[in-house]
UniProtKB/TrEMBL annotation:
Organism annotation: Brevundimonas goettingensis
Site entry: Transition state stabilizer: 179
SUPFAM superfamilies assigned: Phosphoglycerate mutase-like
Protein name: 2,3-bisphosphoglycerate-dependent phosphoglycerate mutase
Primary role: Catalyzes the interconversion of 2-phosphoglycerate and 3-phosphoglycerate.
Gene designation: gpmA
Keyword Lyase set for record: no
Length: 237
């Protein structure tokens, strides 16, 4: 029975500043680093020894995974990075203060952009400060200018099917260190969460979510390793 752990990155500088981050490559705060270390301790206590770690190309996820592995005493786990595990692209909201954006556009509109399943924010204008098209990490890729959770799932799922699922199907344990929305996309897929219910699923920073899977990669059990910081989980069929 393969085990999967989903680890959302620790608190980032823009989490602290309450800004829409998306694909902007900000680093962890000291609190985020502490969350990553604690996550690694919990992973060790659970006896979890992944054969591989998948992560995004963004620093906050990569560092969270690396710190957690070091804290767990797991120094030789290979790491595979891919942009398809990036956070959701927040389009024209990128870099904005969330409270100020709510004042400008109204709380109801911002709630739709943030929490709806299939309504994306306005697209990112080309040529601006947060235009990622010239970033060498995305060379040759057809990258988005905004995303909803639905379109985030549309890019995460093919990568799950081609790269991650085969490792689990081979019986390997896998760690994924990524972001709130790319991990919510995986949770939606694994637990078959309805569109109108996934908006209520939140994944806390730095708290490993352990999922036991059957041979068909259906969840058998799931738990947050830090019960004191746990969020509610979707029902297992």
């Amino acid at each position: 029975m393969p085990r999967l752990i989903l680890l959302r990155h620790g608190q980032s500088q823009w989490n602290l500043e309450n800004r829409f981050t998306g694909w902007v490559d900000v680093d962890l705060t000291a609190e985020g680093e502490a969350q990553a270390r604690r996550g690694g301790e919990l992973i060790a206590e659970a006896g979890f020894k992944p054969a591989v770690m998948f992560t995004s190309v963004l620093t906050r996820a990569k560092r969270t995974g690396a710190i957690a592995l070091q804290s767990a005493g797991l120094k030789d786990v290979p790491t595979i990075e891919d942009w398809r595990l990036n956070e959701r692209h927040y389009g024209g909201l990128t870099g904005l203060d969330k409270a100020e954006t709510a004042k400008l556009h109204g709380e109801d509109q911002v709630k739709v952009w943030r929490r709806s399943y299939d309504v994306p924010p306005p697209p990112l204008a080309p040529g601006g400060e947060w235009d990622f098209t010239a970033d060498p990490r995305y060379a040759g890729q057809d990258i988005p200018d905004t995303e909803s959770l639905k379109t985030t799932l549309d890019r995460v799922l093919p990568y799950w099917n081609s790269a991650i699922a085969p490792r689990l199907e081979a019986g390997e344990d896998v760690l994924i260190a990524a972001h709130g929305n790319s991990l919510r996309a995986i949770v939606k897929h694994l637990f078959d969460v309805p569109d109108d219910k996934i908006v209520g699923v939140e994944i806390p920073t730095g708290n490993p979510l352990e999922i036991d899977l059957d041979a068909e990669l259906k969840p058998v059990s799931a738990r947050y390793l830090d019960a004191g910081r746990a969020e509610s989980l979707p029902a297992i069929a």
